[in-house]
Design a protein that fits this description.
Rossmann fold, three-stranded antiparallel sheet, globular, 7 helices, 10 strands
């Protein structure tokens, strides 16, 4: 594992964007695995800036996203489809037909999970997978469990996640209770993995995930077993590990 220590969030975002842009430049038709959440927004902003300057071309890139809420349509401003278009897809020259997010409106979980897994395999797998890191070590919607989930699957969201998301919706009834997510095996099959972390609140889980035992109670710990992982974090997030 390679670890890059950034001074702050902006520096972290730039360093992460450098790694993604190098992948796009080296392999213009690469498959990027993308993530949502607050942490990667700065990385996407930096990629957009370089695209606008003419330094990056996304026209041959294909993307597959980690996850999506079940039951949310594309036009819901809380869907990850909406998030990706707002923060990246609509701001660069990527072909919309080559961007893929799990279909939250497919009611049959088995059908959608198999479709998405087949899609990833049909693309030849993911060249570079971008990940954030949850406070409890989750990656995608793979929460702490007794065993590592294998491939793309439907998860029941924890009550704490549902409660945290309630502020984004008009009523509690609108809050999603399930989500589709790539499984640990799907994530681990990516050729390269890039993890971005920032803030003092992530310091403990960074230490547990990357320097503690490999255990499904800390899902991200499995990344220790991957042969090409890069961790980019700001000084606060990396404050409890020795570099």
């Amino acid at each position: 594992m390679v670890i890059y220590k950034a001074t702050d969030y902006k520096d972290m975002s730039r360093k992460a964007a450098n790694i993604i842009s190098a992948q796009v430049i080296m392999k213009p038709n690469c498959v990027l695995g993308l993530a949502t959440g607050s942490t990667p927004i700065g990385t996407y902003d930096q990629l957009v800036e370089w695209y606008q300057k003419g330094d990056l071309d996304f026209s041959a890139v294909t993307s597959v996203n980690l996850d999506e809420y079940k039951g949310l349509s594309h036009d819901s401003d809380q869907s990850y489809y909406y998030f990706m278009h707002k923060h990246l897809f609509d701001r660069v020259n990527i072909n919309p037909d080559q961007t893929h997010v799990p279909n939250g409106m497919e009611p049959d979980s088995a059908v959608e999970c198999q479709r998405y897994e087949d899609l990833i395999h049909s693309l030849g797998g993911v060249d570079l997978q971008l990940l954030g890191l949850g406070n409890n070590g989750h990656i995608g919607f793979n929460e702490p469990e007794e065993a590592f989930e294998t491939v793309t699957h439907c998860v029941n969201l924890t009550q704490s996640t549902i409660d945290a998301n309630a502020r984004f919706f008009a009523t509690k009834e609108e809050v999603p209770t399930q989500a589709y997510t790539m499984g640990i095996k799907t994530i681990m099959q990516a050729k390269k993995i890039l993890v971005v972390v920032n803030g003092e609140g992530k310091a403990d889980i960074v230490k547990r995930a990357f320097f503690g035992p490999v255990t499904p109670s800390v899902p991200a710990s499995i990344l220790q077993m991957h042969n090409d992982v890069t961790l980019v974090g700001d000084a606060a997030a990396l404050s409890k590990i020795n570099l």
